[in-house]
Amino acid sequence: MEEMNDTYQTIAAPSQEALYKDRKSKFYAYAYPIESEEEVKPIIEELRKKHSGANHVCYAWQIGVESPTYRANDDGEPNNSAGMPIYGQLQSFGVTNVLIAVARIFGGTKLGVGGLISAYRTAAQMALEQSKIVTRTVKTLFKLNFEYAQMDIVMRTIKQRDLEIVSQKMELDCELIIAVRAKQAKETEEIFEALHQVRLTPI
Predict the structure, then answer these.
(1) Architecture per CATH, 138-202
(2) pTM for the full predicted model
(3) C-beta of residue 139 within 8 angstroms of C-beta of residue 180
(4) Residue 75 burial (CB count, 10 A)
(5) What does 86-119 look like in DSSP terms, one character per residue?
(6) What whole-number distance in Å separates Cα of residue 33 and Cα of residue 11?
(7) In angstroms, rounded to a whole number, what is the distance separating the alpha carbons of residues 181 and 173?
(8) pLDDT tens-digit map of 151-186
(9) How far is 79 from 195, CA to CA, in rounded Å?
(10) If DSSP codes are grouped into helix, strand and coil, which group holds residue 1?
(11) What SS3 class is residue 32?
C-alpha cells in the first residue's frame, strides 16, 4: 500500500507587493496563505479598493493536499490569459493553500494574449519568489473522553506517542482534543481504543 503524503508546502505569510511592468501596463502581484475558499473574496475586494484604477484583478488559488481544489479567474481578460498562467506558478512552485492575485493597470498598449500570459505568469512568479515557503503537516483531530482515574495512562500515552494537545477540560470527566499526523491517525485510534475506559471520537 502506498504511504500517504501528510506534508505539504505553502507560504508562511502574505508576500510583499511585486510589480512587473510591460509596455506601460503595470501588474501588481500578491501571494496569500489561505485555509478556505471563503477567504478569497474579501482579499480580492480589498485589492480592488487598493488599486481602484486597475482594469482587472485576476487570481488563482489552490487548497488541499490529497485531492486539491483550485480556481483560476481571468476577470475579463481573454480566456485563459491570466488565471491559468497564475495557477501554473502555484503548480511550478509546488505550493497549496495559497491565493495569488494580480491587479493590472492598463498602460495604453495592448499586449496580445501571448504578452498577457507572459506578464501574469511573471508577476505571479515574482510574488512567490518574495514569499517564504514552508512545509506543514496535515493533522487529524480526535476527542478523548475519560474519567479522571484514567488521566495518568492517557497522559503517558500522549507523551510516548509525542501527540499534540489542542485543548483540554479536566474535571470529574475529562476531555482532551489531540492533533495527530494524518499518517499516524489509524495507529493512534487503535492505541486509545485498546484503553477500554477511554472514548475516542474523530473530529
Answers:
(1) 2-Layer Sandwich (3.30)
(2) 0.74
(3) yes
(4) 18
(5) HHHHHHHHT--SEEEEEEEE--SS--HHHHHHHH
(6) 6
(7) 26
(8) 888 888 888 888 888 888 877 788 888 788 888 888
(9) 58
(10) coil
(11) strand
Instruction: Report the candidate in 174, 170, 172, 167 with the shortest Cα–Cα distance to residue 203.
Output: 167
Reading the block at residue 113, the C-alpha cell is 494574449
Contact 25, 105 (CB under 8 A): yes
Residues in the chain: 203
Euclidean distance between CA atoms 163 and 172, whole angstroms: 23
| Domain 7-136, CATH among 3.40.50.300, 3.40.50.1100, 1.25.10.10, 3.30.230.30 | 3.30.230.30
Distance between CA 19 and CA 115 in Å, rounded?
16
E strands present in 53-184: 56-63, 69-73, 98-105, 133-137, 139-147, 164-170, 173-181
- What are the structural domain ranges in the chain? 7-136, 138-202
Distance in angstroms (rounded) separating the CA atoms of residues 153 and 160: 10
Q: Which three cell numbers stand for residue 160?
A: 510516548
pLDDT in tens, 19-49: 999 999 999 999 999 988 899 999 999 999 9
Cα–Cα distance between 57 and 169 in angstroms, integer?
A: 46
